[in-house]
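Human: If only I could read backbone structure tokens as easily as an amino acid sequence. Underneath my words sits a plain record pairing an amino acid chain with its backbone structure tokens. Take your time, and here it is.
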Amino acid sequence: MKKNRIGQSLLGFGGFLALMIFMPGSSTMEVFAREADTPPDLEGRELILEAAIDLALQFNPGLKVFSAAENEALARAEQAGRGLNPELGLEVENFIGSGDYSGFSSAEYTLFLTQTFQLGGKLSKQREAAGWNAETVQLEARLQALDLQAQVTRVFVEILTAQQEVSLARELVRLAEQDLEFVERRVKKGSTSPVEISRAQVALYSARMVHDSSRQALKIKKIQLSTLWNTTTPTFGIASGSLESVQPVPEWEELIHRLDQSPRLKRMELEAGRRRAELAVLRSQGKIDLTASAGIRHFGNGGDNAAVAAITIPLPVHNRNQDGIRAGQYGLDQVDALRQTQLVTLREDLAEQHEQMTTAYIQVTTIRDEILPASEQALTQTNVAYRKGLFTLTDVISVRRTWFELSSRYFTALATYQSAAVEMARILGEQEPNKLNPLEKD
């Protein structure tokens, strides 16, 4: 019965594989590069987690939104640093009046150029504030990619689990078919009642129903995975990997220390920087600007020309942007409270996943090391005793059902462990699995 257990670990803590799609003579990137705008047809090939993540990162439309948003933010940052344009004006005086001013002979023409100079460092502060927005968008794009990677890994884990359920159900069908053949031979020899055939047939029908159900569940999971790289119909074959790499769960204090470095908290640091930059812009807007103009004036009645110049300075009597500055300060004061609120939420989520992972680890090790070996031994002994006529078919079916349920529970516990590890890595913002578990080496 050991052959139904998943083999040597490939998945690792947190579930991130450093593998490729198996394709003789071709690399993963060669497969993906065939058509850059559409996902490749995997044509029944074996799929590993890293390739699934690469497909999602390359073809998931959600990430393209952040790419456009990042370009937009960078363009706005450039635009924010551009000053005001100069203005060209033409002024005509003393024309179409009365007497000597009835026509244009006495008119005065002034051609002037006006430029407003923004003082108080307005341009540099606006550019800095826009730069913070661009950096925030970049971080959001990174978090979105990490979330997508975690989602792919969770579904991949579910597919590995579903494949094991199919394998277990197939083994159950095989054993039920053997039982039916054995019972039919015994009935022909007259060594058992024909009623046993009906029992064996019911057990076989039940096993086939479980097998069909598990295959359908696997099909649905494969569809869910392929939709993450924008494909409605999965074309890959089996998912390759192992769930059985389990390590003792990291200590809570260590996880809390790592949480302080989470990019999800860095988001609040960027928000604080952005609010400070915006407050600096608001304060600079309270500073006066200088408008200067210079030009040439032509006197129509004498044909003479003269230079003209002017300077305009606003008087900050009523508006020094004092209310805008006050509002900006209130916004900055909110950031620390928002960070503390987010920290509490992340700690709650991390504690929930830590508890699930700890519980699953206990279940995995207990079933693997104690319960499942005993169940497999009991199943083997029961089969041998049944062939010798010491047990009934009902006894065999009962023991076999127990073995199947325990095996299924084992893989479910493994999936829970790996999924919790993936979610913890997502919360911590740690992309590499060995950063999460100090006992796992590179």
